[in-house]
Amino acid sequence: MKLLEEKIKTDGIALNEHILKVDSFINHQIDPLLMQEMANELAGHFKDKGVTKVATIESSGIAPALLTSLALRVPLLILKKQPSKILNQDLYQTVVTSFTKETNYELTLSKKFINETDHVLIVDDFLANGEAATAAIRLIRMSHATIAGLGILIEKSFQPGRQKLEAQGIEVYALARIGNMAENFITFI
Ligand code: 5GP
To the nearest 5 percent, what fractions of the chain are helix, strand and coil? Predict the structure, then answer.
C-alpha cells in the first residue's frame, strides 16, 4: 500500500536493523484517516472469505482490527494479555514470547465469545517473528474455530514470521513489507 509506505518513509523511525518506531501514526498517536484506509484495504482483501469475527492482541492491534471488523460488519475479539498463570476453566489460555519486551506472557480468550462455527481473521500492527500470530492462532483453534487469514499493517520480511505462518497454511496479507532496515534507512519489497 503506497500510502503506508510513504508514511513509513516520512514518519517511521528505524531505530536499528530490527525495530521500527511508528508511534507518531500507528501505536501511540494514531492517524485515524490512514488507519481507516488501511483497515478498508484489509477488509477488502478478506471480504469474500466468510469471516465471522476479527481477532487481535491487545493493545496496538486494536485500532486496525476494530476498523477492519467495522468494515466487515463482524464483531472484534480482543485476545487479552494476562500477567498471571492462574488456570481458569472459562478461558482458553496460551503463552507468547514477546518480541519487543523479550518476556513471556499469557494470552487469553473467553470461551463465551468463540466456537467451532467461527472463521476468524487475525489483524495486528506488525509481523516480525510470528510469535504473537502463532499464539493467537493456537488460542483460537482451541475452540475448533478456523482461521481466515492474517492481516498485517507492517511486515518485516527479513524476519521469519511470514514463512512460519505460511508453513502452517495461513494466508498472510501485509500492507507494507520491509525488505531491509538500518538506522534511518528502509527499503520495501
Ligand atoms: P512477532 O510475534 O511477530 O515477533 O511480533 C509481533 C508483535 O511485536 C507486534 O504485535 C508488535 O506489537 C511487536 N513488534 C514487532 N516488531 C516491531 C517493531 O519493529 N516495531 C514495533 N513498534 N513493534 C514491533
Answer: 30, 35, 35
Q: Give, in order, the Cα–Cα distances in Å from 143 to each of 4, 9, 90, 108, 140.
A: 34, 40, 12, 12, 6
Domain 2-188 sits in CATH at 3.40.50.2020
Per-residue confidence at 139, pLDDT binned at 50, 70, 90?
Answer: very high
The angle subtended at Cα 178 by Cα 119 and Cα 53, nearest 5°, is: 15
* Omega within 30 of 0 (cis) for the link into 59: yes
- Rounded distance from Cα 93 to ligand 1 centre (Å): 21
pLDDT tens digits, 48-85: 999 999 999 999 999 999 999 999 999 999 999 986 56
Enumerate the domain spans of the chain.
2-188
> Do you know the residue count of the chain?
189
pTM beyond 0.85 = yes
Ligand 1 centre from 187 Cα, in Å?
A: 18
Q: How far apart are alpha carbons 81 and 75 in whole angstroms?
A: 19
The single-letter DSSP state of residue 113 is: G
Q: Is 164 in the pocket of ligand 1 (CB under 6 A)?
A: no
Ligand 1 pocket, 155 CB below 6 A?
no
